[in-house]
Structures are given as C-alpha cells and as structure tokens.
Amino acid sequence: MKSIGDGDSKIEHILAVDVGTQSVRACIVNRNLDIIDNAKVSYFPIVKSKTMVEIEAETLWDAFVQACSRLKDVRKIEGISFSTLCPSLLPMDADGNALFPIILHMDRRSYRQARWALKQVGEEKFLNIAGNLPFPGGISLTSLLWIRDHNPDIYHRNDVVFGHAVSFFMKRLTGKFTIDPSNASFTGLYDTVGYGDWHEELLSEMGVARDKLPTVVLSETVVGEIDETVSRLTGLPKGIPVVIGANDTTCATVGIGVTEPGMLMNTSGTTEILVLCLDRPVVDKDHLLRTHAYQNRWLAMRMVGAGGGSLEWFRRTFCRDLSHQKFYEEYLSDILSSDKVPEAGFRPFLTGDRHRIRQKTGAFTKLTLNTTREDLLLAMAHGIVSFQAEILKEWKKHTSISKKIFHVGGGASEAYTRFKQRHLEEYELIPSGETAVKGSAILGFNAISKASPK
Fold first, then answer.
1. DSSP letter string over 143-194?
2. Residue 376: count of CB within 10 angstroms of its CB
3. For residue 1, what are the CA distances in angstroms to 72, 295, 298, 452?
4. What homologous superfamily does CATH list for 13-253+436-451?
5. How far apart are CA 237 and CA 255, in angstroms?
6. What is the residue extent of each domain of the chain?
7. CA distance linking residue 197 with residue 185, whole number of Å
C-alpha cells in the first residue's frame, strides 16, 4: 500500500503540506520521497480559558502562503497534497470564509453538548456507527452543537458549512467543500465502522442537515486545480492538481508503512498518540477509531492530549532561565538519559482526556521538600510512557499486535526514543522521524497517477 503508483503520470515533484497545531510545513518531495526543499511557518493556538483552545483559520492560511513563498523553485511543483490537524471544527460561509475560529482538539468547552448527544443517541449506537463516543474536543460534533447553542446566528445561516481545517483549504484552493474519511471519522456523524458516508440516522438524531456538511471523498482524490488567483498569491503553478490527503496521524502511518493489521506507531508531538492498524473495525469506549487512508483498514488510537504540550508547558512555567533550544536539545535530553525511577508521579491530563466526557486534570503526586524540577520533568515523561504501557496491555487482550513500534513525529528525538525503549522493554522502538509529510506525498502521487488519463 505504501508504494507510489506509476499509471501514465509523468509527475516528478509534489508539494506535501502538513498543517499542524503549531505550524505549517510545506515540502517539495520527489518520487523517491526525498524532501528537496521545505519551509516552515510557526504560530500558536489561542488559549482563551482552561477549556477553550482556538486558532483563526486565516492564521493557517497566511502561514501556508508564507511557507509557499519561501520555497526556492516552485516551478518544479506539479501537484499538492495535504496532511491536516484533526479534529478542527470550522463553520464557513458559502465562499469558504470562516464564521468563527477553528475549535481545536485541545478544546473542552462542549461538555454539556457531549452529555446531550450521548443521551440522545446512546453509547452503543455511537460506537457501532461512528466508532467513537462524543468526547469534547476529540469528536467535533460536540463543538458543532456548542456553536448551535451559543451562536445560533451562525448555526442557522442558510449557507453555513461545518468542516475541518482540511475543508477550509480545499474550498480556498479548489472552490469545493470536501473532507476525507480520516477527518470525517472524528466528527461523530460519519459511518466510520462501515467506512461509508455521513450517517443519516445520526444526522437526524443530532438535527444536523446534510447540506451543512462537506462532501466526503477518499484520501487519494484529486479535488480540483489551483486557480489563477491562488497561483498569484502563493506562487504555485496555475492548474496543478490538489489532493485532499488525510489527517496528520493517518498520513504518518502511510509515510512509515503502518498499513497492515497489528502494526503499531507512536507519534510524539503536541499530542502523544499510540496507533494500532486494524483490518476490521474494533470499537471500544477506551480508544478512538478512525478510517485509514486506505479502504478496508482502520486505526485504533489512544492519546495524551498534551504530550509535547505538557513539556512545553513545563518549559514555560519552570524553566524560564533556559532558552527554547537549550531546554530541548540539552536539558530535556539529559533528564531523559537518566536511569532514575522518579519518586514523584504525574497524571498526563493537562488538556483533559480525549477518551472521556467528564474531563480529567493533570497532577503531580508524591511531592516532598526534596522534589526538584528535574524530578518533576522526569515524572512527567515517565507518566506519559506508563500510560502507553497500559494501553498496549489492553490491546493485547483483544488482538494480535506487533513487537515493533515506529516512533515518529517532531518530538521523537533520539533521547526520547531511548527513554521509551527502557520502559517498554517488551517492544522494539524504531526511531522514524517525521513521516506525515512523506505520507501526504505518497497519497498525492497515487491520487494524481489514478486521475491521469489512460
């Protein structure tokens, strides 16, 4: 599944775009999957309160435009494909203009709406259709319902469309409102178990009109072409095909080749995610389920909402005397290299728990007058890995899993991989770098190859 199809396509270079929680990265990738040029533009989500985390859609768009402008030779680009953050609920008008900020996966404001949705539909039906329960922030239905309750002027507009960040980019680039199955899986309105479409019964029970949602298309789909206006703005060649791609975690599995049942991947970034590939949809209230980028494959996921986010919080709060570079390249590496078992403990829920409606909070435990900041940082890392060890034990009870774990993402440093390896002795952790961009490129090349005239 990982190979790039040839078809009749002569395309040699594609622009793979990774739209993340804290940055947009644009990479020119050749058919050997080598990155020959790249540009990254960073930004920060807006934390409005302890439960509200947003970002402006135009912030993402401006970062994309800036990243494209920094590429040296855009003339080589013959297509563009996306990897996108998810869930990332955004209401838009008929022209694709944002009507509200993007409500991010770290957002927990919609607790009451989650409780209402669960009561209306029931736990069993949600799991057996959507594959997930309506967790605040984790499943964007609850954010949509929050807008219904708190911004009815937006919700009841005749032209409103509720999509994810990918839908915003597809509309801006091609003029079409679309969403891929891996993103749709985390809406709570899509038939994830059946790898299908928006589910009419769920739409009816939630009171959501189908025309308020984008069209679902497969990940290897050419949605449209770059028009002259976008070409002038970004510098991208006019008329190149735009491929929808998949959400960032799904793209990462494609990039590293986690496409067969039982294979495992651990993404370390703003969020820590443990992923298990399946050839049948296994539903459980203790994990999230989404479709893979390939049909007849699903991904079970458990996550720590603030993995790398916890480390960044620690740096800003306790290590103001250290620069960003010194903290991550020296201080954190030294702490992770320690064989010491921390006396302090850490519950890794600084942004709540995306697997529960009633939200948890993070906490340090077993502190004494002798506890140092080094002890706290080690406890934080240990708490995250211990949580993942428990997940693996649970998955082993239900299905056969690999002994290899591909460790990917911007936070998958050599020191962190070694640290995890010491605490997950039963498994072999394979450091694999950032693979979402590579996965996006693979999906892009394959989509354009399939779409080429025979």
1. HHHHHHHH-HHHHT-TT-EEE-HHHHHHHHHHS--EE-HHHHTTSSSB-TTT
2. 18
3. 31, 10, 14, 19
4. ATPase, nucleotide binding domain (3.30.420.40)
5. 25
6. 13-253+436-451, 308-433
7. 10
* Residue 87 preceded by cis peptide, ω within 30: yes
How do the pLDDT tens digits run along the chain, 454 residues long? 456 755 545 799 999 999 999 999 999 999 999 999 999 999 999 999 888 999 999 999 999 999 999 999 899 999 999 999 999 999 999 999 999 999 998 898 999 999 999 999 999 999 999 999 999 988 999 999 999 999 999 999 999 999 999 999 999 999 999 999 999 999 999 999 999 999 999 999 999 999 999 999 999 999 999 999 999 999 999 999 999 999 999 999 999 999 999 999 999 887 789 999 999 999 999 899 999 999 999 999 998 766 777 888 899 999 999 999 999 999 999 999 988 889 999 988 776 666 666 677 889 999 999 999 999 999 999 999 998 999 999 999 888 999 999 999 888 888 899 999 999 999 999 999 889 999 999 999 999 999 976 5
Domain at 308-433, CATH class: alpha beta
CA separation for the pair 9, 6 (Å, rounded): 6
As a 3-state breakdown, the chain gives helix, strand, coil percent values, each rounded to 5, of 35, 25, 40
Q: Which helix (H) or strand (E) holds 405?
A: strand 404-408
Nearest in space to 299 (alpha carbons), one of 228, 230, 350, 248: 248
Whether 308-433 and 13-253+436-451 are alike in CATH topology: the answer is: yes
Integer angstrom CA distances of residue 79 from 230, 293, 451: 14, 18, 12
Tokens coding 331 = 């201080």
